[in-house]
Design brief:
This protein has 282 residues and is α/β, with parallel strands linked by helices. The chain contains eleven helices and seven strands. A seven-stranded parallel sheet has the order 3-2-4-1-5-6-7, sandwiched between helices. Helix 2 packs across helix 11 and helix 3 packs across helix 11.
Length: 282
């Protein structure tokens, strides 16, 4: 069952889940003045960031008429495109000028139409390290994404594992910086320390700690991030999604789909207003 259907069914009730989904749905439909950019980085690999980016982008795309663009700037053979059931995303070597066609009022729709879309409606750009050169740095990202990203309400970029220096440059180009981590204490402590440092840097965007419960430790270790004053979201881990065969669609569980709605809503709210708060940390 699609997340949108889950929201519709839950909204008929009055329980906590119904209210949670209704709040998330309203937040995801909020108008935005200009294209909002969200960058996702990892301190350590294997945090399930790509799956979460894909799931959150899909949720947003189903609710917004202005479009959602997902960008794969992470190491791997087009992993984000695969997560969005897209066979052939455009490589980083694509000339941005080739995506533009004509002018006038129809220009935005023409540019969006030239990008490949998955079945969820998310447009995808970039194929990770499937084509050279890699890794794409923030400057190359701007050269390719800026001319087309402005035609989308939301641009979500999966940057993969990045150094402190690279992340500082990534942060400067986004409205929200998401630091994705596993919930085991070691990776979580490293992610918390670096996210806290980035959050207090001059001209920092909103910084979010995204803890994917790969180790199934629940909310216990995520309290470390909240103690550091970080906005923290916890997403359940779905082993079936992690081990999926691209040829066999995998439907995530209700808890994961609900978490994706929470993540999408919170990120859009923070991208639109860094001081925004949507309920409590998930």
């Amino acid at each position: 069952m699609r997340v949108l259907e889950t929201v519709a069914l839950a909204a008929r009730g009055t329980g906590p889940l119904a209210r949670r989904l209704a709040d998330a749905d309203a937040a995801m439909r909020r108008p935005v003045s200009t294209s909002r950019r969200v960058g996702v980085v990892q301190v350590d690999g294997g945090a399930g960031a790509t799956t979460t980016v894909a799931g959150s982008a899909a949720v947003l795309a189903r609710r917004r008429g202005g479009g959602v663009l997902a960008v794969d700037a992470a190491r791997g053979p087009a992993a984000l495109g695969a997560a969005l059931a897209l066979d052939a995303p455009l490589p980083w070597t694509t000339d941005a000028a080739s995506l533009h066609a004509g002018g006038g009022a129809s220009r935005g729709s023409q540019v969006r139409a030239r990008l490949p879309h998955g079945p969820t409606g998310v447009a995808v750009l970039g194929d990770g390290s499937a084509s050279a050169p890699w890794p794409p740095d923030p400057q190359r990202w701007r050269e390719l994404v800026d001319p087309v990203g402005r035609f989308f309400d939301v641009v979500l970029t999966d940057w993969g594992v990045r150094s402190d220096a690279e992340t500082a440059r990534v942060a400067a180009e986004h409205h929200v910086l998401v630091v994705a981590t596993r919930t085991e204490r070691g990776p979580l402590e490293r992610a918390v320390a670096r996210a806290a440092a980035w959050a207090t840097a001059p001209h920092a965007p909103a910084v979010v700690l995204l803890a994917v419960d790969v180790a199934r430790t629940g909310d216990r270790d995520a309290s470390l991030a909240r103690a550091a004053g970080l906005t923290t979201l916890v997403v359940p881990h779905d082993a079936h999604l992690a081990a999926r065969d691209p040829r066999t669609p995998t439907v995530p569980g209700t808890a994961v789909r609900t978490a994706w709605s929470d993540v999408a809503a919170r990120l859009l709210a923070l991208a639109s207003d860094p001081g925004a708060r949507l309920g409590v940390d998930a």
